Sequence to fold (459 residues):
Amino acid sequence: MTDTPAPKATKSVFIKTYGCQMNVYDSERMKDVLAPIGYAPTDAAEGADLVVLNTCHIREKATEKVYSELGQIKKLKEAQGGKMTIAVAGCVAQAEGAEIMRRQPAVDLVLGPQAYHKLPEMIARVHRSTGERLETEFDTQEKFDALPKARSVDGPVAYLSVQEGCDKFCTFCVVPYTRGAEISRSVDEIMVEARSLASQGVREVQLLGQNVNAYHGAGPAIEGGGEWTLGQLVRHVAKIGGFDRIRYTTSHPRDMDDDLIAAHADTPELMPFLHLPVQSGSNRILQAMNRGHTREHYLDIMRRVKEARPDIGLASDFIVGFPGESDKDFEDTMDLVREVGYCIAYSFKYSERPGTPAAEMFGQVPEDVKNERLQALQALLREQQTAFNASKVGQTVPVLVTGKGRNAGQMHGRSPWLQAVHFDGAEDLSGQIIDIEIVGSSLNSLSGKLPQMADGVPA
Fold:
């Protein structure tokens, strides 16, 4: 049975996405559920019939940023004579639903991450001025069951959600409260969506989950079902054809099993890149964070991953200034960074999240100390990232061309290690994987040229 073709678009929707790749995926799926009722995407909130803020609750002051944005959108709504529907979706909506409706009456509906498949129904209720405007209950499986099987994608790279939710309950994190418990989609369900992406020319697929390597979905019915791991799923996705590149994010050290590490060695489509957040290099702080792994366990994973795929690029997340963090604890983190060596990493000062255990802990670190530690850590990480990028100069690497660059005649793509690569070339290269000679590097990108132009003239 095929999905009903979308009617001719008669209305416009603007979606602003904050935060993680999971939110990017969710925003794409919102467009899919809105298309059958006549909504087409637009690039600006001005003049839109529907504006959706797909929010993230991870970063500091996330909620206040949402209210500030809503204040600006309210003015646009008033300028249109009230003929704009405003929706707040995502994790801030899940955590602050009723408060959003109270503080900003211009908001027409609020829906959590597991409810966006209900957008058409909720919009209809608003237009009829009846029914509940708040939908923040957890029901992940219902969401996936209700989404259109086909995807509409734009470009050679796409996200594919395979797992949602978190059961880890790190003491600093709100994700278990905003995304719910861990749930994995079945392999059969994932493959329907994967084949749809491949048929539309997607060359690189990124498997998503809050704890993606905790994947434990039902195996293919034709093979008797049973629970599959992420390593098995990666190999299965690689077999369908069409995908030249496979990635996954975000992982947890507790779920990094031998089979997934082996997949990095035996599956050429799996890119040589691993984002595995450690958060701290101190066992004492890791215990206070309830991370469930030790420094030694993490370092052992790094060693085995490098043995399986020697050219792998490693990425991580760090929190500095967690309650009780001493100078020695922070030095343990710096020492771990020096030992591992990262191609990229994301580091943040600890900030309190209301309702999380860490917010009530003793030993909150002074702001000036957190700032000093963050600057020292980021200086070391920048040094490593710059060195990693510089190591590619002189090499010829395969680049997936994703579109035009900022300058005239320039194209943009990504390397196997997720680096941005800029080079001069024709627009018809978009969507292709081509060899590029790397001639320069910076902190955030590589610059290159087509090999046949390496000497200034065609080879």
In short: The first strand starts at residue 11 and ends at 17.
